Structures are given as C-alpha cells and as structure tokens.
Amino acid sequence: MQKEVISKRKQLLSCENYVSMCYEYKVKDFADMALKLSISLLIFNDFSISDKKKILQSSDNENYQFLSLQDIYKKLNKKAFSFEDIADQIKFSYLEKEKAIVIGSRKTIEEGTIASVKKLLSELRKQYEIICLKTNDKKVLKWAAQDRRIDYIILDASYNSQVIDKALCSVMKQSNKYFEFVISPLLETKTEQELSTVIRNSKKMLKIIKSYNTPFIFSANPSTPYQLRNSSQMRCIGEFLGIPYNKTKKNTYDYQFSNLIKNVIKLDDSYLFEGVRGFHR
Amino acid sequence: MTVIERDRYVVFKVISQTIIDDISILKNAVWEKYKQLFGLKGTTEAGLYFEFFSDDMQSGLIRCNSRSLSSLMIALAFITSINDHEIILHPLYVSGIIRKAKEYLDSLGSYNHNVD
Question: What is the ipTM of this complex?
C-alpha cells in the first residue's frame, strides 16, 4: 500500500502556473502546500529570474527541494539535444523525485494599449521566464495573439465573455499560443448571485474556446496556499464548466511544462535560433 | 429490470490552519456546497454519507452514488473555507469497495470515529 502512495507522484504531476504572493504568506508556505497536493511545478508571478536564484538557496534545509530548470538545462546541455529529449530527461530524472519542486518566474502585463505593452515587453522579456498579458481591449488581444514574446493571454472568469471571439481564437490557434483560464474568481465569490454570474461567464468563454479547438491551460491563481488546487481538482472544475475531464489531461501540466522549457532554452546563452545552439570550445 | 446503484468511497484529507474536531461542521460545508452547485435534486440523488472521520489524521471517508462521483469531486474542489478558516478538502483515493477504502485510510493512520 505504501508503494502505491509513493508511486502516485509519478502519475499525477501537477502545476500551478500563476502564484500571486501576498504579504501574509511566504514561498515556504506555498512549497509546503504544494508537496501535500503533489504539485511539482510552481511559477511565481512578479518574481524575476534573479529573485528566483535567492529562493533556490532558501530550500537547502527544508523538507522540499527547489529546482531551477535553467540549472538542470545547463547540466543536460550536451547530453540532450532535441526538445523531447530535454523534456523527458527533466521529467524522469528530476521531477519524479519525491520532494522536488521546480520553480519558475513570470510577469503579468496589465496594459490597455499596444504601445505600452511593446515598451514593457522590450524591458521585461529577458528578466522573466514566462510573460502573460491581461487586458480587456480586443485590439491589444489580437495583436498579442501574434506576438512571439507573449506566452499566455489571461482569461479571467469575472470578465465579460465578449472579449474573445472567433477571430481571436483562430489567430491564437495559428500562432500556437495558449489562453490561461484563471479559476480563482470561482473560488473567491462571496454571494450566490456573484458565483452564478462568474460560472455563466466562464461557461460561455470555455464554450467558444472549445468550439474552435483553441489551446488553453488552467490556473488557480492562488494568493494564499489554501487556494492551490492540484491537477485533478482543476480538471474537475473544468468539467463543471463544460470541458470533459478526459479532454483536459494536458491542460493542467504538460502545456505549462513544455512552454517553460521552451523559454528556458530561448533564454540560455547557447541559444542562437530555434533548433540551433552554439557551444564555446 | 433491476437497477443497482453502485457506491463509491472517497478518502479525503483535510488541510487547514485549525484542527477540525467537529465532523458536523465539515458535513454541513460539503452538503451546502453540493446543494449550491447542483441543487436539492442533485443532492438527493447523490446519496452522500460520511462513513468515517479521524480527528488525529484529519482524514475521512465519504460514500456517494457512482453517478455523482464527479459532482462530489467538484463540490470538494469548490470548498475554500469553513467558519472563516481556510481549508482544502483533498481527495486522495476513490474505490468502489469499502474494504479497500478503509485499508487505504488505515495506511494513512488509524481511524477512530464512526459518525452518522
């Protein structure tokens, strides 16, 4: 029986793509909770790559072990070449260890004009592993859907569902970009009326996304460790919103993980252009 | 034609800032959330029943109808607080046989309460 409990980690890798820290809780609290829920990948919002290095050192005497994909990638640099090889090696050699938690850094841009987003992107792209955009403006969204520097476009369940339409979905699909569907408004509502509105909006949004087969991921966007949800719980919430449980297998871990690796490869010194790396002699 | 309703047993763990020692609070929270999301009709069809709860391990066993398993999982995922304390009800294991579910619960620790 004990063996079954341990081997669960191998089957249920979970990810939280959008951890928003508040002052009351520290990284340690999130890490402890992530271990309890079998979450092996935590991406912290507003933590730059340099901030991440400080956090990595803090896990030395703890019951969890923080890992950085950049460090792992440097170790694997000459052993694995294709993207699939790198992803597999990281997954099987590092992530399936009992206490390993990979941490990543991300920035959410909340701007209303294309010019201001462009300006921020030029400053921020190399400081963070993941860049996301949160806006209500349709023009900005359509522009962002084609920009390679932006990884995710955030869909908040409290938004009006008219923000997304067929055109945006098809551009997103063509440029292989993901919507990030945030479920925290569903969990934070105070009244039944509010909950009903949020559920209605979420269902509408996911119906449009589903009908155009646009890629998307789930995030819980927790501000406290108790708002973290593991992969299967997020898929259950997705099922409630109209996406079948069996169709969201990759939306809670695999897509996030592969996007993070892609960006780590791009940010590495040896990266020249897609598929080509240069090594110093 | 006879229609057999099959049961599912869900082993869950309470992760909270405070220790839950009164099972009725937990039961109320699950029932209320289930009713809020699926209505009275859904709740009556679910056949929810709290089999065991251990104060020491903060884990327990809920029985439900096999058709309502996904709804129960959804309700558990939606519960965020009880009496203004933040909480996670984390489902660990699902079985159709109560003996197996109890064995799993045993492996986590010992259960000592029989509620309901």
Answer: 0.90
